[in-house]
Amino acid sequence: MTKPKALISDKMDPNAARIFEERGCDVDVITGETPEELKARIGEYHGLAIRSSTKVTPEILDAATNLKVIGRAGIGVDNVDIPYASGKGVVVMNTPFGNSITTAEHAIAMIMALARQIPDANVRTKAGEWPKKDFMGVEVTGKTLGLIGAGNIGSIVASRALGLKMKVIAYDPFLTEDRAVELGIEKVDLDAVLSRADFVTLHTPLTDQTRNILSRERLENAKPGIRIVNCARGGLIDEAALADLLTSGHVAGAALDVFQTEPAKESPLFDAPNFICTPHLGASTTEAQVNVALQVAEQMADYLVNGGVTNALNMPSLSAEEAPKLKPYMALAEKLGSLVGQLAHGNLTKISIEREGAASELNGKPITGAVLAGFMRRYSDTVNMVNAPYLAKERGLDVSEVRHDRDGAYNTLIRVTVETSAGPRSVAGTLFGSGAPRLVEIFGIGIEAELDGHMLYVVNDDKPGFIGRIGTLMGENGINIGTFNLGRRDAGGEAVLLLSLDEKASDDVIAQAEKVEGVKMVTALEF
Ligand SMILES: NC(=O)C1=CN([C@@H]2O[C@H](COP(=O)(O)OP(=O)(O)OC[C@H]3O[C@@H](n4cnc5c(N)ncnc54)[C@H](O)[C@@H]3O)[C@@H](O)[C@H]2O)C=CC1
Ligand SMILES: O=C(O)CCC(=O)C(=O)O
């Protein structure tokens, strides 16, 4: 078997390449390429490991015909078009904790540097000025620190700031009162942060809701003398407005690690007073870079080699222990989804996935993803369990998952039901022996069959002589029958036949089969 191949396209700790190799992947480290160069190369890789320089755009993703996973050695993934990657079936992972302490410490360093104007004092002292009389700092003890965003990094900043004897208030719509109490901070609204805080520090992702959160209007209405720190993302602050307000003195100081356009080669802020900056160094410590490099390579290799999913932003997690256990279930789920997708006709807008017995104990999300992937194959060749839920949503498919505690006839069972204009249609399957997927029910009729390769589904009247007639027809057309599986609703009533064939039945053979006495319907199936 050929090894999966990963590309590391941004500067990363060498441990990343080592881990890829140790975990059974080939890896190339090629950094600093232009988008055109990356586009020309990306087709040969299954994994792409990045930091913030590589921009994973739709153009890159369109060229990434073999790509299965993108791993961000860090937290922010605004340089990856996640919806587009999801549509392409590519998993996007990050390393949500590896650099959070380091980034929080950078924010604290920025607060202290602003309070005591350390960068300016340093430059002028080294220039031989000894400018002691020009600098007068402020203490942080007793001052109010306002957090915008109190997630991983914001909470670490809060704990350090409390240690510095600051009062901490926070605006974060997802912060609960209980968590605020646990952190020892006060939950307030955004206006309160801006009107009460002496220092404000931003720790949110860049999203449509947070873009320009510190707009000109908000900055103008903020407490006079406020100092602002941004170690999260450029784009959260109106940079031109901040420059104007530093110049007017309304904002007493600002420290940015991140800019709207990076690398920031010029900015109105560079000439503004009391402005300090670093070139996106928030995550740049040896410790953080080793952490994120190890983590991203471990996670990506785990997915490429074992199917384990950790810290994915566009699909549910699946541990390396769970992955092998779930594998036969996912094969069964995909076949059931595919069967119902091939058999049910009309405008299908509702699908339900029920699990009972051992299947009910499992992580249901990957099973649902696999059912949907099989089902959606009727619409798309490139669908997989990553993009299937997105495609299903796009098409307005109503998906429900049901877990039954009851014991049924089988140790483990998955049932997939679609709502058709003629009512619900369901198929069910189980795992036999060491995990072989088997169909056990089709539209209410018990039948045991392996769903594999070229098949023919026939609905017929349960009358003597029928099996012989179908067998003869196949023989006359030179088609070898692999397996022959029968089921019936009741003796003499409606019956179904599932044939596996060594070759695909042509339209002509299907037309002949439709004419066989007793046949009500024939459908060719492919698995
Ligand atoms: N400068 C650097 O080198 C680094 C920057 N970062 C940036 O820091 C950001 C935050 O990282 P974490 O704390 O780990 O993320 P997180 O996801 O743990 O926390 C983000 C918090 O922002 C909150 N939030 C979301 N929308 C909000 C809104 N409209 N208003 C206020 N709060 C909102 C969320 O509820 C969440 O609590 C990352 O998204 C990344 O962009 C992260 C690492 C390094
Ligand atoms: O990789 C870096 O240096 C930037 C880190 C960062 O911005 C992040 O993790 O969100």
Automatic annotation (TrEMBL):
<comment type="function">
    <text>Catalyzes the reversible oxidation of 3-phospho-D-glycerate to 3-phosphonooxypyruvate, the first step of the phosphorylated L-serine biosynthesis pathway. Also catalyzes the reversible oxidation of 2-hydroxyglutarate to 2-oxoglutarate.</text>
</comment>
<dbReference type="InterPro" id="IPR050857">
    <property type="entry name" value="D-2-hydroxyacid_DH"/>
</dbReference>
<dbReference type="InterPro" id="IPR029009">
    <property type="entry name" value="ASB_dom_sf"/>
</dbReference>
<dbReference type="InterPro" id="IPR006140">
    <property type="entry name" value="D-isomer_DH_NAD-bd"/>
</dbReference>
<feature type="domain" description="ACT">
    <location>
        <begin position="455"/>
        <end position="527"/>
    </location>
</feature>
<dbReference type="InterPro" id="IPR002912">
    <property type="entry name" value="ACT_dom"/>
</dbReference>
<protein>
    <recommendedName>
        <fullName>D-3-phosphoglycerate dehydrogenase</fullName>
        <ecNumber>1.1.1.95</ecNumber>
    </recommendedName>
</protein>
<dbReference type="GO" id="GO:0051287">
    <property type="term" value="F:NAD binding"/>
</dbReference>
<dbReference type="InterPro" id="IPR036291">
    <property type="entry name" value="NAD(P)-bd_dom_sf"/>
</dbReference>
<keyword id="KW-0560">Oxidoreductase</keyword>
<dbReference type="GO" id="GO:0004617">
    <property type="term" value="F:phosphoglycerate dehydrogenase activity"/>
</dbReference>
<dbReference type="Pfam" id="PF01842">
    <property type="entry name" value="ACT"/>
</dbReference>
<keyword id="KW-0520">NAD</keyword>
<dbReference type="Pfam" id="PF00389">
    <property type="entry name" value="2-Hacid_dh"/>
</dbReference>
<dbReference type="Pfam" id="PF02826">
    <property type="entry name" value="2-Hacid_dh_C"/>
</dbReference>
<dbReference type="Pfam" id="PF19304">
    <property type="entry name" value="PGDH_inter"/>
</dbReference>
<dbReference type="InterPro" id="IPR029753">
    <property type="entry name" value="D-isomer_DH_CS"/>
</dbReference>
<dbReference type="InterPro" id="IPR006139">
    <property type="entry name" value="D-isomer_2_OHA_DH_cat_dom"/>
</dbReference>
<dbReference type="GO" id="GO:0006564">
    <property type="term" value="P:L-serine biosynthetic process"/>
</dbReference>
<comment type="pathway">
    <text>Amino-acid biosynthesis; L-serine biosynthesis; L-serine from 3-phospho-D-glycerate: step 1/3.</text>
</comment>
<comment type="similarity">
    <text>Belongs to the D-isomer specific 2-hydroxyacid dehydrogenase family.</text>
</comment>
<keyword id="KW-0718">Serine biosynthesis</keyword>
<keyword id="KW-0028">Amino-acid biosynthesis</keyword>
<dbReference type="InterPro" id="IPR045626">
    <property type="entry name" value="PGDH_ASB_dom"/>
</dbReference>
<dbReference type="InterPro" id="IPR045865">
    <property type="entry name" value="ACT-like_dom_sf"/>
</dbReference>
<dbReference type="InterPro" id="IPR006236">
    <property type="entry name" value="PGDH"/>
</dbReference>
